[in-house]
Amino acid sequence: MEFAAFADRAAEIEAESADLEIVDLVTDLFLTAGDDLATVARFVQGRVFPAHDSTTLDIGPSLCYAAIARAAGRNVSAEDVEDRVAETGEIGAVAASYGFGGQQGLGAFGGDGEGGADPLTVGEVDARLRELAAAAGEGSQDRKLDVLFGLFNRCDPDEARYLARIVLSEMRIGVGEGTVRDAVAGAFDVPVEAVERALQVTNDYGLVAEIARDEGESGLAAQHLEVGRPVQAMLAQAGSVTDALEDWDAAAVETKFDGARVQVHYDGETVWLFSRNMEDVTDALPELVTFVEESLTVPAILDGEAVAVDDDGNPQPFQEILKRFRRKHDVAKAREEVAVELDAFDCLHADGEDLLDAPLTERHDRLVSVLDAGIAELRVTDDPDEIADIETTALEAGHEGIMLKDPDSTYSPGRRGRNWLKRKPDVETLDLVVTGAEWGEGRRAELLGTFEVSVRTDDGYATVGNVATGITDEELADLTDLLDAHVRAEDGKTVDIDPTVVFEVGYEEIQPSPTYDSGWALRFPRFVGVRDDKEPADADALDRLERLAAEQ
What we know:
Layout: H1 3-15, H2 19-31, H3 37-43, H4 61-72, H5 78-88, H6 91-96, H7 122-134, H8 140-152, H9 157-167, H10 177-188, H11 192-202, H12 205-221, E1 235-238, H13 241-247, E2 251-256, E3 260-266, E4 271-275, H14 286-295, E5 300-309, H15 318-322, H16 331-337, E6 339-350, E7 353-354, H17 360-370, E8 379-381, H18 384-396, E9 401-405, E10 416-423, E11 429-439, E12 448-457, E13 460-467, H19 473-484, E14 487-491, E15 494-497, E16 502-506, E17 509-512, E18 520-523, E19 526-530, H20 542-551
Parallel strand pairs: 1-10
Antiparallel strand pairs: 2-8, 2-9, 3-4, 3-5, 5-6, 6-7, 9-10, 11-12, 11-15, 11-16, 12-13, 14-15, 16-19, 17-18
Helix pairs in contact: 1-2, 1-9, 2-10, 3-12, 4-5, 4-8, 7-8, 10-11, 10-12, 11-12
């Protein structure tokens, strides 16, 4: 498929506002994608790699702006592109506003000397972007710039619009995972439930689309969990003991650990550890690798929590585990400073058998049978007083609270439903996306000192306040370093930040407010920590904010 044809279809989809019509347009796109179906199924979501693959292009806005400026001609600088993005708020529109195709020389074709007269194809764009992702070491940034420039230099305006969005993972055409699922089902005449199930165990929309087309329902049914390939974590909602006992005959109660979610994969020889976002964190947690090798008796996939502990084995605050999670350098030194233990609470696969459809209690029994230690206790009861005693014990031990789960519930990857409820007795916090900041004053003049935080909405993000309290000078320096790479534009002291970092924010009250575009404001917001384990898509949405406000 020519990339121009894909861009034309993407523009049609973006112009449509009705959900059903969008599904129909994506369905038609899949039917005409041919050999590029897998790539198209990813591109339409702004993805290059399958959801389970933690590979990234590692291209920030600055590099993208530089490539666009170079393709646009000598009179355009990266700063000019940045200024236009600040004005329009959207990289695709800016890329489409330039006339590309006039730059010559070796770099004009990505550095390989091949001609650029032939139209770009979806397959070629995919191959080039994968080449970008593989670039590493000395000179890699120059190589990425050359390749990206070569692509933009061959784009017409619509192609440039969607290339830029794919590169920065900002597709914004109204196509989510549910749309792709429904379009695959409609295009290849297979049940939506079969597509959903295959997606849960593979986390690869491109693969599932091809299987649906080539093998139909039977091919989808043949898909299973694969050790070494992570799946999305099942998620919980906030809830109460009353909610649990009203909905279920009894509640399965376990400790809510103040750690980082980790998915354990073991094939009998090799151990993989994945974060909640399916990022490979194996190298950062070598003691957990050793623990799994010594304690897990069969190939398996487990769900659990990595918890920082002190010398006596007592749990440490969440911020301590983040000093270890995703650590790529000085792992041995970090290990000396912060010890980590595994608390496993679920078993998704054991010794060749998928357990997603088994009841929670059966999965826990299987966990006990395959793991020799590090297992979270699960107690089933319909007695509120017993649940209160379990909660008291958990809190006294230094944990965050308790989880309440339906004993009969299956494991639904990626789903946040009422089958798992998290109960925390302390004040609620919100996980909010940082969308802006302001430089500090006085001795903090070189540090970002105030941070604009936002909730997710259907159209993007809506601000709920500015956080400036609860942050030490050392933390401000770390936050400034963290956010510097994501700065989109600056105007005096005000900084516009790409929505990539999630803060956990405490507050006293949620109030109606005409000041912020969410319609709400946090009273006395305070910084709790960086949710390094969460992507912006996992941050709290406006509907949760409104629900919490209504419950005050």
